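Catalogue entry: protein

Sequence with per-residue C-alpha cells
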Amino acid sequence: MYMYFEADDTLDKSMADLVSEYLPSTQGSCMTFWYHMYGDDIGSLEVFTMGSDGGHLGPAFSKTGAQGDVWIQGSADIVYIGEFKIVFEASGTKSGTGDIAIDDIDVFTRSCSDGGNPTSLPVIPMDCTFESSMCSYTQLTSDQFDWTRTFWFTNTETTGPKFDHTLGTSYGWYVYTDATSRQPGDKAQLASPAQNPTGTGSKCLVFWYHMFGAHVNRLNVYLRVSQPQMTLDNIIFTKYGTQGNQWIKAEKEITSDDVWEIIYEGVVGQSDSGDIALDDLSLYDGACPTEVECDFELDFCSWTQDQTNSWQWLRNAGPTPTSSTGPSYDHSTGSALGYYAYVNAADASTGSKARLFSPIYSDTDMECLRFWYHMYGSNLGTLTIYTEDQVTHSDSGVLFTRNGPSDDAWRFGQVSISSSHRYKAVIEAERGFYILGDIAIDDVEVIRGSCPRQGFCDFQNDLCGWSQEVVQDQWDWLRSSGATDSPNTGPQVDHTYGTQEGYYIFFDNSFPTMKVGETAVLNSEHFSPVSSACLSFWYYMYGKDIGDLNVWMAYSNGQPRESHWSLSGDQGFSWFNVQIDLSSDIEFRIQLEAVYQIVGDQGDIAVDDLDFEMNACSDIGTAAPVTPARPTTAPVLSICTFEDDFCDFTQATPSSLVWYRNSGDTPIPNTGPTVDHTLGNTFGYYVYLKSDVGNSGDVGQLISSSMTAGPQGICASWWYHMNGADINKLEVWKTEGSTHVIEWSRLGPQGPDWKHGQVSLTGSFMVKFQGYKGSGSRGAIALDDISFSTGECPSQRMCDFEHGDWCGFDQDYTDQGDWNVERDDFSPLDLTYGPSTDHTYGTQIGK
C-alpha cells in the first residue's frame, strides 16, 4: 500500500495535503520517505512543518517534474520549537497526467547529515529596522490582532510616535500595535526567527520601544524555549503605562542551551490612546552593559542579596502579608499588579538586617542613585544607603538614612556618589521592634552626574522626583515634546530649550470620555517643614477650551490640602512664569492639578521647569519672559483640513459666491478635484467655489481670524486646485486695518493636481482667500490644508517632490510624454528599469 496524488487535467494547479499528527518539539530530527513522480508534466512535491498556529515553515524538501518510473528515497531535517505537524503537499498542472506517490515514512531523533548531532538552524539575522519589510519576523495567530508596519503617525492622534527611531523622520518605518477598535486586554504578538543555542557565551538583545498615551497598557518580551506555551518564567522584559513621547532603548542578556526565539507582545489598554511601537531590533554577541535601573517587575535585575544574613529582600505585588504596614501597590505602575522589593518584618527579629548589593559600577567623579521607598507602619526600623569600595573593601559611610513611622506613600530619595575605585551601592534595611515595620523600595537607578536639587525638574528624561497621583484623580499628566496633537492649543516647543526636541508635561483634554470636573494631579516629593520657600514653574495655557490650573499643598498627617494658586482660561500663545511663596510647619507635598472645565479639545495645559527653593520668591528675582511680547490675538499657528468644519474661517457677507465643503468629485464634470489633499481619497473634505452659479467675475471670500506675528513672522501655507476650461483667478490678500494687499495670485487652469502655495507675513492681520468665477461652469476652484506657522516660509527654489507637488514646475504639453511623481512601493506603474528608492531619503517611500 502507498499514498498517491492523482493529477486532474480538468483543474489548473490542483493541490493536496497529507498532514501528520502533532509531534513533540525537536532540535534536530531526520524524516525519511520514498517518493514516486512519473508522468507527463508532473507538478511538485514539497514537505513543510506546521505549528499549532497554522503557520507553515519550509519547505524542508522540494521536487518538481518527472523523476522517472522508480521509487526514490528522500529525507528532510526537521527543527521546530513547540508541537508541530509534518505536511506533504503535492500539486499538479492543468495539462499534467502524472501522479505523485509516497511510502515508508520514518522520523529519527538525529540529523539526516551527521547521523547523531542535533541539526543547527540556518543563521537568520534578528536585526530589523522595518524600513523595507518585516524582515524575518512573523505574526502569531494565537493572539487577537497583528502588529502593523507603518511610517508617519499612528491612526490615533493622542498616542504613538511621530517619527521612527532609525531615521528620526516621519518617513522612517516602525511597527506598532493599533489600539483603535480593540478590546482591553487584546494582544498582538510578533515572533523573531528562531536562533541556535547561545553556547557557553551570551547574546545581547537590543530594541527600541515607544509607549505614549493616556491608556497605554503593557509591553511584554518573552524568551520562548523549546515549547509553544508562554509562561511567566519565559518573560524577560515588561513595561507598563505611558513612558513619555520618546523612543527608549532596552537591552536584555540572552543565554539558552536550547533553540530559542523572542516574542514581542503588546497589550491593549482602556481606550484607543494606547499604541505601543517597536523599532531597530538587533542581537549582538557578548554580554549587555551593566544594568543601571531596576523596577523589580520580573526579578532583582543585577542586584544581589547579602548571603551572610538570613533576612532577605523579597519581591511582591499588591499588599504585603501584614496589615497596617507596607505598600498596597508598586511605584512603577501605580497598581496592585506591579512589583516592588520589600523586607517582611514578620520574618525577622529586632535589629536584623537585610542588604541588597548593586552590580559593580566603574569609578566615577559623580553619579546619582535615585530610588523610591515606602516606610509605613508603627514599628519601623531604619533604611540606609551607602557604597562599598571593591578595591579597599571599605564603606563610604551613610549617604542616606530614614527611620520612624511615616504615611502610606511612596517617597523619592536620591544620593550623589563619587568613588575613585569600582564600587557597589548597598541598600540596607534594619528591623524595628515589632512586625508593623515592612520597608519597600522600587525604581532604583543610577544616572550620570550629580543629583538635581530637591523639587527641580525640566522633564528632559523623566518626571524626576514628581509622580502621578494614583487615587484622587482620573487622568495623568503626559510627558511630550514638540506640538501637542490637538490643533490651536498647547505649545510648539518646550520652555527649557525652546525647541521641538525639548520635553515638558501637559494635560491632554481631547479624550471623548472626559467629564467636566475631572482632574490630573502631579505630586512633588515630600518636603520638610519650612518657614519660607518659593515654588517656580512655567505654564502654557492657550486654547478656547482651557480649564483650570491649580497648585495645592497636601499634608502627610492627613489634614485637608490647601489651595495656594489658581489660574483659568486662555492665557495666550506663550510660556509664562509664576512664583509662589510657601511655608509650612509640618511635612508637605505640592500638588499640580489640571481641571477639565470646558467641553472641547482645544484646552491642553502644559508645564515646564518646575523648581523649589528654600528662599522667599522676592529673594530669588523674577524670571525673564520667554518671548519679547505677549500676543494679544488668536492663533499664530493653526491648521484647517476641513475634515469636520470650516475651523475659524468665515465667509464674507454679502457675497455672490459661497465656499462649500465637499468630498469626492464636484458636481460638474471636468473641473475640480476628485480627492481631497489631506487624506488623498474620496472620503476627505476640501472647500470649493461652485462654478455653475452666478455671473462671470463674481467673488467668493474665505477669511481667517485675526492674528499677530511675532518677530519671526508667520508663514501662511495652503493647497489649491484649479482645473477646468473656465478657471478664472485665485488671490490671497493680507488685510491689516484698512489696508488690503494682494500677496499671491494665480490665473487660469493650473493642471489636474493639488498645488502648494505659501506667503510670509508680518504684523497684525487677517488672510483672505478670494476666488473669481469664470465664464463657464467648468471653473471650480478648491482649497485644502490651510495652515499658519511661526517663522518665514521655506525657500521654494529646492524641490524634493515629497509632497506630490511640482514646486512650480509645469508639464510641457507640446511634447510627446509627461513626467510622473512616483514612490516605488505605492506606484501603480511597473518601474522595471527605474530606481527602487528616491534620492532624498534613500527609501521606497520617498518620491
